[in-house]
## 1
Amino acid sequence: MGVKRHILTDGNGIPLAITLSGANVHDKRNVKDTLNS
């Protein structure tokens, strides 16, 4: 098992939101969590 990092940035590459999930979790499940954080 591992960890995935989901990072939302602005146009300049500045991080706006960061969430973590397990490597076995589909990326689609974390889109809402990342956008809402």
## 2
Amino acid sequence: MEARIGFHGKDKRYLTRDLTFHTCIIITTIFGRPSWYNGNTPQIKWPDNGGKIQSESMDLVREINKRYKTAAGKNVVDLYPGETINDVINKINEFDKIFPRCRPSSRAAFLFRYDGEPIWKNEFETVLKKTDALLADNNNGPFFCGSRFTAADIAWVPFLERYAGQLPCLHDGLNPKCQDKYPYLYNWYKAMETTVPVYGCRIRGDHSSWRKVLTMAGFGNAGNVPQLVNDRMDEITKLECKPISKEEYKQQQILWDQYVSSLSLSPSLKRKYVSSSPSKEAASVLIRNRENIIKDIISKKRKSLPTESNELDEIMRSLAYILCNIDDDDDDIRDINDNVQALASFLDERMCVPR
């Protein structure tokens, strides 16, 4: 995630599967990777550096920041600003001092003990209190180094994002976004999600996806998911199924408009390949990937969905139509047939963001 935020934070065009510039190659998925690629974390091969491969996330972020200081002749976000570079580095280093030592996991890191049970609640609370205090060191803004989004935020966000989605499932009354207990951490989450468009619209994972990881054997829990964890997950899922308010919808669209318009760059670099709203972008992704989705549905043999490709294709087009016209209040959208509802439920279950 850190390397992806580094590129997007610099407002470089991001392509699915591979991202290729004249000076570097970065591979972010396990599909179609070259022979030199080894492992699942982002790696970059810099052709102008003897073909050496770089893979540690924050090393990548720093190198990206060094190489891409301008776009279209204009300065872009400096993730290591000169006047606060020492503070940025210190805040990055504080992560290892604050987060707990526990069972390693690629998607459920810093959550489980070596016996497969969640870390004790008081240990999590200590981590959150220390993080809140670290953010309080800067009274000039909500980010780790004040009013500016920097590499320090990039270093912390993958893990704090996961904590926001996962900790409420592990212990009662454990919420990193609690404004009363962790006011500075609350403000940081709010700033990241509402004032950094590239994070909120392109990088940020959703809580339901991070919760799914808690039930997967091999991702920290040793395959033994405590019943209380499952119960809490079910309760949180019910709460999240409530429709968002008109004000929340409006704020989401404002953030999306900022992302699409690439406000930090010249108008000529507007993201013309992105749809005009989140729901239309979802419809676009659905249609572009319909063949693979159909194969997935057929392989899962869901009784609630047909197994013929033509029927499934028609259902997906109906769902895409609804997503494209989500603002309309007409019978076509209110009267959703059972198959379309079943497809939406299937996609919600199968989808992970990030995957």
## 3
Amino acid sequence: MYSFGLRSYRKKRFIRDLTVNQTLSLKNDFGNNYNVVIVNRINSTAIRTLMRLNKSSFEYGTVHIIMGQTPDIFYNYFKTENPLKLLKRARQLHLLVFTSDDVRPEDIAPVLVYLWGEFSILNVVAQIPCSWKYRTILITYRPFVKIRDTYGQVQLYKLSDVLSNPLILQNNLINMNEYQIMISQFERYPTAVRNPPLSIKESRIYRNVKDTSMFYGLDGVIVSELSRILNFSVSLQENENNNYYGMILRNGSLIGALAEVACRRTQIQANTRFFAGITSDWVEYTNLFHFDKVCLMVPKSEQVPKWAKMYKILRTKLGITIVAVILLSSIINFFLRRCTGMSNHETFWEMYCLALGCYNKNVLYANPQLPRRIFLGSCMLFFIVFSTILTANLFEEFSTQSYYPDIDTLEQLDKSGLVIKSSISIFRNNSNGLSARLARKTDTSWKNITSTQLAITTKRYAAMGRLQDAKIQIPTKYSDEEGTPLLHVVAECINSVYMGFIVSTGSPYLLVINELLQKFHEGGFYWKWYSDFGVALIVEARAHSNYTHHDLKPFQLRDIQSAFYILCLGLGISIVGFFMEIYWKQIVESWKTLRINYLKHIRR
């Protein structure tokens, strides 16, 4: 048996010989129950449609021509060949040449069916050049032709018809006649949800979802549209092994939905995933059609207590500026006080009264010094502006909820001591000092609770997620009854990533899926679908919320409790000062007596 690849590369041919021992019987394994049809009439309309749509199902770069005597020899060859090697060239065109003169199309049919069922080799053409009866016949297998309740038909074409219309041998994927494709998809909010908002579920745009993917959201709609355009039915594979993305373990084994695709138990994994450079030879990515940023979600900072709101303002630049201006103005006023007869403490007291808006006679009435009048007038205008700003800030703090500063940089996250909970170590390959420290704080161990729930309940974890998803998840899932967010997205994101689906190596659907995904991208459908579901989910969450939001609310005394604390503090200090004034003389006399007695004791 001889196998050689014909490549249009520098017009060279690469030939290699193989010897196959016949140990397996095709007839014993498969029987003879195959539908074989001779095609006598070519549908020219279908050919023109195929040429116009140009949805190719094979790669043009390579043609594999394999020569052998009998179908059993071919069967033994494919059965003993390295399966990964066959899968990697499954989308290429295969030509099987049978050199025996007593081979019939019925004998070849099991080989073609086997190649499709075992390796998903779609475009296979067989020829029997040594047979007088069938030498001008080309044989191919049509897996998407529906015969009663089953699929698959072996068709025979005349060589003259093929030469006139070469595309008739191509298995196009334009219409699969509701052929069943195994697709893995698990529920993931908000890109794959089972119970969408009613406004979306009843929309005419998404009415086909319930009959195809049964998942709403970006991922579910993409599968639904692919099913509608290519006319295939979705066989949703749901079990405990493929309800999460999966990963490659250190020993090289695969788990999760990734393993289901690699083992060909499912053909497409239709949850958008990061292009993380999967090194498995058994899996391929589709076109990377979606883009997002990887960010960290940390617990929302604590709310500022009402009693501390005034002190929060005084700690700001505004409070520091006011105090500095009062001190500087008092010093200048001290040097301008000549010929006024004012004492030192009166000059400082005068400036303090100006800051509070309590103007005394030195400002309200004529002042004998022109420079001092100009200075005091400018101070009046300055303090009017600043007092207005301070009043506005006080009103804003007292009438709204305010929080301590959130974590917005990775440096702040590092200093906070939070543990990063994630299924992947995204800082692993970065030698930067900050990234190395964050990598040591990343926990990739699995638990029965999600990372976001850990961040909310324990306040000791930071969760990793997609930025666009977080903008939907926080107002819909991670907010309290009053609509206050429980998580905060760190403004400095880690990385930007592209995302796509994965398919089994050699999948015959990859080329046509890539073409349609590209058209969806060019038409802007991804962000349209994503925005539709995002807005609908947020609106529904707010409609079902028990919190009634009012722009205006009655002002209560507890809103200004910090002012009463200041009053109580001043009262306490004044009481202490009052008693100190009363007993000051006694305290001084007692101190002098103790000092005298102590000195006398030392002299002795």
